[in-house]
Amino acid sequence: MNALLTGLRGFAGYFSGVLGADAYRKYLEHHRDSGHAGPPLTEREFWRDHTDRQDSNPQGRCC
Amino acid sequence: MGTMPAGRPQTADPEDGITPVPGLPPTAVDETVREAEERKWTPGKIALWAAIALLGGVAWFMLAIIRGETVNAIWFVFASVCTYLIGYRFYSKVIERYITRPNDRRATPAEYKADGKDYVRTDRNVLFGHHFAAIAGAGPLVGPVIAAQMGYLPGTIWIIIGVVLAGAVQDYLVLFFSMRRGGRSLGQMAREELGVIGGTAALIATLLIMIIIVAILALVVVNALGESPWGVFSVGMTIPIALFMGVYLRYLRPGKVMEVSIIGFVLLMAAIIGGGAVAGTEWGAAFFHLDKVSIAWGLIIYGFIAAILPVWLLLAPRDYLSTFMKIGVIVMLALAIIVVRPEITVPAFSEFASRDNGPVFSGAVFPFLFVTIACGALSGFHALISSGTTPKLIEKERQTRLIGYGGMLMESFVAIMALVAAISIDRGIYFAMNAPTALTGGTVETAAQWVNSLGLAGVNITPDVLAQTAKDVGEQSIISRSGGAPTLAVGLAHIMQQFIGGTAMMAFWYHFAIMFEALFILTAVDAGTRVARFMLQDSIGNFVPKFKDHSWRPGAWLTTAVMVLAWGAVLLMGVTDPLGGINTLFPLFGIANQLLAAIALAVVLAIVAKRGTFKYLWIVALPLAFAAVVTITASFYKIFSPVPAVGYFAQNAAFAKALADGKPSFGTAKTTAAMEAVVRNTMIQGWLSVIFVVLSIIVIITAVIAAVKAYRNAAKGIANVEYEDPAQPSRVFAPAGVLPTPAERELQAEWDKLPADRRLEHSARH
Questions:
Q1: Which residue in B has a C-alpha nearest to residue A12's C-alpha?
Q2: Which of the four pLDDT bands, split at 50, 70 and 90, describes residue B11?
Q3: Fewest beta carbons less than 10 Å away: which of A22, B44, B514, B589?
Q4: Which residues of chain A have a CB within 8 Å of the CB of B530?
């Protein structure tokens, strides 16, 4: 049962990675690692910026 | 200079000139260790690869040589997977060794440009899924279905062999070289490597190709939704669902992507089920029953609004939904085919394989089969993705093989699955669904009569079967639903109902399939319009600087409108074409897509030559030559063929003459207006073919010139101009393949022992 749960959790983690759901966590990691002086963006600010930047930097989706 | 834990000195490598960062374990597996590991053939390894080769060989034998009554679908799975494994393990390794020559001691853009937003190191297996979701869409689901007209074998061979030698090579190389250039786009690379003329031609060609691709994808949706109240309702509901998701993510629970995707998915399922109920009521059937022209106009208006709305409101949430569905659907389809293992009755080569007047698409196997199946075998559009987001996310250089080459193999597998689904249905139904109304007559009686008159071996369809199939999948009619999507949906419903749910679920599965294809296509249409609009803005910006300002509303709206009108015009042309839009336009889609592939390969050819790799240049030259020959020949047929069904201008002349002679109807055009439409459409399509082929020839010639120049320079000892970003030492390590090798595991253990604070990227301070 535990193995199943771990497997499911692993899959969910992978899936959220593919979806890009972990973008904020990765941003925080980067912020911490690169030694920025200021506080990081909040989750709300980050996602707002995340989609707003796509407005001016569109990415193709293939056929 | 300190020493590394392994005791190696921290000096610049004489080969690559990179000085490793002191105090860190090696960032790459030692070259000799890796080499020894790769070259060591243990008995177990030999047995494994022998088994794979044997199984693949047997599967190909079953598909290509044995001529039984039927062939089991499982052989398609074995033939493709075994060939992919061999191609991945051996051919892509050759490319890696002699052409890309990745260096894991070198930092990737995700490392040296890290910003936590666009440039983010991403786990290779996650990135594989991410890249796959970006490249695969409706294309590999549609082309193979249409190509099934020729029988299963030509398509199967082209999809599997084509991807190993061409499609995956293109994706891998573009990805790698874009990564070496900090994630530069194909257009920028073309400009640098090919000069102003080649670069400009590449840019214009890309823009036109995007218009054609978006238009024909939209045509596939229109054909799938025309006169289908259920489909219109459930696909229409994706818009409010996406809007809700957008608001949810922006205001209610920002960042809860997984959560909102699941909510969206549940709503989507509800929309499909609800669609059945709504279409069952009298008012629903009346309200959502739209003809193709209305749907086309709806799509055009929708396309414009979607492209000017902020990304967060519609595009981003639908993208999540589309990715969510994509992975799920493909896993499900593969599972179902492996479990159900349908028997295929379609012959290896059909009666149309040796003719050029097939009802689904016209033209002979060569070159038209090779352009009908673009996505899944060789898709130029991928070059735009491989030189877009993905190179900015790669963690280590060696991972490009898994992501670029491997990702494309995966798409090819999707194409094979789609082919299997399409050929698992009765051939009579296949032709009744895919031939234009002009041939089938539009009713079950006329369609059955027409199909039976084709003289196809083993085909004898009754009107009842056609009517019953339509009833099973919850449609009013399945006659002349060309475009590939409905056929795939019937095939998928046919397979899935044996897996889950039985016949009662067929209608659900059918509309589920239509829904996800529409979802992929709408996402591609939105994103394509946006990308094309930015390209147009930048191009106009060279003359009117104001246009370069992307936030300038009038400019953005104007260029969006131009782009939408451009693809909208082609779409309407296809919808109203008396000859059947898919039949005439689909070749143009494939030609456009593969011309883009030729352009991408031409750019790669120039780069590889400039790096001094002449002995293995054939690896790039081979797919380039093939793509060039196929597309240029196909274009020439389309331009010069005297056969009206094939040549645009021949068709044009035939109809123009009929008009001049004052005939009230001609061929499949029953009115003067329809005849005039044919004259107009063929003229536009013909000139588009001319422009495409001219632009592509310019790009290919400039690339060959650049390659020859590089060769002469090398002979004279002159260094070629290098556009790669300067090499910087990496400070991270990650394995290259899906599973780490023993040497990689050993090195990883060394890294894991490193105190956390030293593992971090303090260099990226800003």
A1: B258
A2: low
A3: B44
A4: 58
At B466-498, the pLDDT tens digits run: 999 999 999 999 999 999 999 999 999 999 999
Residue from B206, B258, B762 whose CB has the most chain A CBs within 10 Å, to mutate: B258
> For residue B608, what pLDDT is reported?
95
Distance CA B123, CA B547 (A): 38
CB pairs under 8 A between A and B: 153
Residue at B560: amino acid letter: T
Instruction: Tell whether A16 lies on the interface with B, counting CB pairs under 8 A.
Output: yes
| A28-44 exposure pattern, b = at least 16 Cβ within 10 A, e = fewer | ebbbebbeeeeebbebe
Q: Indicate the DSSP class of residue B106.
A: B
Structure token digits, residue B426: 């009765």
CB spacing of B258 vs A35 below 8 angstroms: no
Whether residue A46 lies within 8 A of chain B, CB to CB, comes out as yes
Q: For residue range B79-118, what is the model confidence (pLDDT) as tens digits? A: 999 999 999 999 999 999 999 999 999 999 999 999 999 9
Band the pLDDT of B557: cuts 50, 70, 90: very high
Q: Which residue of A has its CA nearest to B389?
A: A59
Average pLDDT over residues B137-150: 94
Determine contact: A53 vs chain B, CB below 8 A: yes
Closest chain A C-alpha to B356 CA, distance in angstroms: 27
Could A48 and B254 be called an inter-chain contact, meaning their C-beta atoms sit closer than 8 Å?
yes
Contact A63 B323 (CB under 8 A): no
Phi, psi (deg, nearest 5) at residue A37: -80, -50
Report the distance separating Cα B396 and Cα B394, nearest Å.
6
Q: Find chain A residues with C-beta within 8 A of B311's C-beta.
A: 51-52, 54-55, 58
pLDDT at B670: 83
Interface pTM, i.e. ipTM: 0.94
Give the number of residues written for chain B: 766
Q: Which helix (H) or strand (E) holds B343?
A: strand B343-344
- For A62, the closest of B254, B524, B764 (CB atoms) is B524
Helix pair angle (B444-453, B427-434), 10° resolution: 120
A58 CB within 8 Å of a chain B CB: yes
Name the minimum distance, in Å, from the CA of A7 to any CA of chain B: 16
pLDDT of residue B4: 42
Contact B427, B458 (CB under 8 A): yes
* Gyration radius of chain B's alpha carbons: 26
> Is the bond into B367 cis (omega within 30 degrees of 0)?
yes
> What is the CB neighbour count within 10 angstroms for residue B745?
11
Q: Is the pLDDT of residue B391 over 50?
A: yes
Q: How far apart are CA B185 and CA B198, in angstroms?
A: 15
Check B130 against A54: CB less than 8 A apart. no
Mean pLDDT of B395-404: 97
HEC sequence for B265-309: HHHHHHHHHHHHHHHHCHHHHHHCCCCHHHHHHHHHHHHHHHHHC
**With contact defined as beta carbons under 8 Å apart, do B494 and B474 qualify?**
no
pLDDT tens readout for residues B83-94: 999 999 999 999
Confirm or reject contact between A25 and chain B (CB < 8 A): no
CA distance B116 to chain A (A): 4
Task: For residue range B329-357, list pLDDT tens digits in order.
Answer: 888 889 999 999 999 999 999 999 999 88
Burial B148-184 (b: 16+ CB within 10 A, else e): bbbbbbbbbbbbbebbbbbbbbbbbbbbbbbbbbbbb
In this prediction, residue B13 has a pLDDT band, given cuts at 50, 70 and 90, of low
Average pLDDT over residues B678-689: 90
Q: Which residues of A touch B323 (CB under 8 A)?
A: 18-19
